[in-house]
Amino acid sequence: MSIAQVARVAFDSALPQLDRYFDYQIPDGLADSIRVGQLVEVPFGRSAKNRTGFVVEIAESSSFSGELSAVASVVSERVLVTPKILELCQTLAARQALSFGELLKVACPDRMVRVDKSWTGEDYRAELVPSHEHEQLAAHQLASISVMPGFVEHNSVLESRWLHEVVRLCHLMLSESQSVIVCVPDFRDVERLQLVFEKANLSEFINSYDTNATKSEQFARHLRALESHPQIVLGSRSALYSPLSNLGAIVLWDEGDEGHQDEGSPYLHSRDVALVRQSIEDCQLVFLQHAKSATVKRLETLGYLQAQTQKSARPNVAFSSDGFRVDSLAHRVIKEGLKTGAVLVQVAAKGSSTSISCSDCGKRSACGFCNGPLWENSKQQVVCRVCSGFNLNITCRDCNSQKVKRGRAGTSRTLQEFGKSFPGVRLIEATGDSGVMFLKGEPAIVVSTAGAEPICESGYSAVVILDADLELSRDHLDATEQAIRKWANALSLLSGDGKGAIIGVSPEFGQALSLWQVDELAANLLNERIELGFPPAVRLVSISGAREDLQPVKTVLEQVEGVRILGISSIETSGDSRLLATYPYSSGAQVAKLLRSAAVAPALSKRYTKSGRIQRPLTIKMDDAKVL
């Protein structure tokens, strides 16, 4: 049909059956005011009840043969989703087999009426203090920078090298009246950067995408990002969707950290969002890390990223392989370190024990509620790692024994053991639950899990990595990659004259780490993946749901050239099944299109969970290597 104007509307819904555009006639009264990216109310469904949606396109005609309903009203006169953010969501949906509306919900927070009506813009008065320390980063549009461990002195203050690099790039972009997105995996990184930006007189430019923000605060920061003045958007994954109009650079810190991967829908990795957004914005994209992942190494090998390594002294790192958890090297390094300052000891897990198993037959104990693995917390309570349920009476499913034994010591038990070995020394436990973030330089032993290490203001005099063998033997494809990354980040906290020790690694591996050959290790990991035909050499898809729903999907995927079905297996913790398949990058668009279509049919039949909620029939995760 041919009409005056048609508004194509998308709903911010994850339902596959709503994953399309709906055409509405624009009434004469709204013809001059309606714009792409606005939130509107439209009648929807048999009841024609009004529902809010985003205008994604304005056209002169519609392919719909019937009579179009009219747009009821414009909810907000503001353009809440810019054209480039719409393109970002559309591209990601097509690439990752996602619902476009699902991504709209991520890209634009819920509208808060009071904030929207009262927002008149900010009085922009921030002034930039001149700096000439950004030439190194200015030349590279797409770069991967391996930051050496340690600290640098800036304005008489010691700061980590990677923080210094972030500040330099931000200063460069702001001096050119351009904005920057700084995406980090953890709130600790956000707090550290906020302090450094304050010292660099850049705090007035910060637009913080704090994960603890209220809905009103989330909407206010979204409105601020829509303004034209240069700013630094700082946050985790959601920061990559900020609707900046003058984006000059995206900085992604520690791309290999699991915090960059969405645990829930839409199951995206910050790296993929950043790569797609860079291609749309044609801005700089810089990956910063102490130890790069195999994925970043692949992008370097392809010539997509320009590799750069800082020139500075490597850390003083020793290693041992004698089989004792806390051997003579560990004791010696800790003892020497305590003479001059604080000592960091990184262990594999928090709590009293990393695992629980049967003392008679040795089988790992499983949760009585969901079959997940068990561990013992600092209160000697046996807890499930999956559902967090407390298990009181444990019976072995193989031999019916009720005798259990504890596995490797976690943070709390390790701390107790050090209390006996080093009497009178201050002991600090640091985990994700403890909230310890900063320390003075006085002598102390800090036992920490990876990622929760407090920052010592002058650097640690010693860093000891325990449980290296346990980290390397984890049953995951990226176990070695994650271990190297965790150790490199811990060793980066050493003072200039501090000493590190890695306990429980092979001589070959230990030698590479002591020489700080982390780039070579990443290259080796990539070559292994290429030989095995695993990510990132190929792409991976994981599809979870009822087995009867997975079989038709398997049949469809088998028709695509290059697809390799790894199999369908049961998921013990949920009762569902999971289909795994790999495919070449060249087949990505075809695979995603087929999967989006395949998800619609099962979604039309309503199924309910035990709690009464509608169950999503198929869960599609693209490029989630955690399942391997």
UniProtKB/TrEMBL annotation:
Domain Primosomal protein N' 3' DNA-binding stretches: 9-109
Keywords from the UniProt entry: ATP-binding, DNA-binding, Nucleotide-binding
Coiled-coil portions: none
Classification via InterPro entries: P-loop_NTPase, PriA_3primeBD, PriA_3primeBD_sf
Organism classification: unclassified sequences, metagenomes, ecological metagenomes
Gene3D superfamilies from the UniProt entry: P-loop containing nucleotide triphosphate hydrolases, PriA, 3(prime) DNA-binding domain
Protein name, entry field: Unannotated protein
GO terms, biological process: DNA recombination; DNA replication initiation; double-strand break repair
Pfam families, alphabetized: PriA_3primeBD (PF17764)
A GO MF term: 3'-5' DNA helicase activity
